[in-house]
Amino acid sequence: MSFLGGVDSSNGVILDPECALIGESVRGRILSFPFGIGSTVGSYVMYQLKLNKVAPKAIINRSAEPIVATGAIMSEIPMVDDIDISLISTDDRVAVNAADGAIELLDVTERHVVTSILRNRGKILILKRSNKVGSYRGSWAGVSGFVEKNETYEEAARREIAEETGLGDVHLSGRSSARSFRDDDNVWTVHPYLFDVSSRTVTIDWEHDDCAWIAPGELKKYSTVPGFHAVIKNLLEQTNS
Fold first, then answer.
1. Which CATH superfamily is 30-105 part of?
2. 9 flagged as catalytic
3. What pTM was computed for the model?
4. What angle do CA 173, 176, 177 make, to 5 degrees?
5. Antiparallel, parallel or unpaired: β 94-97 and 102-105
6. Under CATH, which number does the domain 109-240 receive?
7. pLDDT tens track for 72-130
8. Phi-psi region for residue 135, left (φ > 0), alpha (ψ -120 to 50) or beta?
9. Rounded distance between C-alpha atoms, residue 68 and residue 51, angstroms
10. Residue 168's pLDDT band (boundaries 50, 70, 90)?
11. Which of 39, 86, 135, 199 is catalytic?
12. 229 alpha-carbon distance from chain centroid
């Protein structure tokens, strides 16, 4: 986002035609965008917003750059960066702690789950969620579940595999860093694991209607839970590197 030419310094209205919020005012709101671009004069546009009492209340960036950072300092606008802004939606209520470089989505619940990808001779197992589960009915996913109290993520992954597939002879082949995805008022933080198994014979439980062993490239044919494609791609890339 460029403040020079992108925001009217007299009233705070966004002018940038490429911005989804064109025509709306930044006045008194928390403004979230990936990073700043444009002329260094943008810093002074931010200062003019402050003088005209139409500046944003705070700024959240994925990556700070000098123009916006300087403007925030000059204008005394709290600013944080290194934030996954894909988790923030317009009209969210957000608390910004600039001193600690942290934010909180006040009406959004974070839920930690494990997702295990089972692999056998180059194919991976996907499961179709039944109509008896509470979310994402009819969508395909890996072996997934919530983490119980006093349980490690790996312990949760192994328990879910036994419960949902009946497989007990599994070998942990890798894991990747947690990934978070926004879905309505929930942020799902997924902890992915890759297990190699010696058998493709599985016994699905009530949570699933069907299962399939597929090549990773075939996943695009299936309707999956949010973020599942990215989880598998990241997991296989990290474990094959």
1. Phosphohistidine domain (3.50.30.10)
2. no
3. 0.79
4. 155
5. antiparallel
6. 3.90.79.10
7. 999 999 999 999 999 999 999 999 999 999 999 999 999 899 999 999 999 999 999 99
8. beta
9. 16
10. confident
11. 39
12. 13
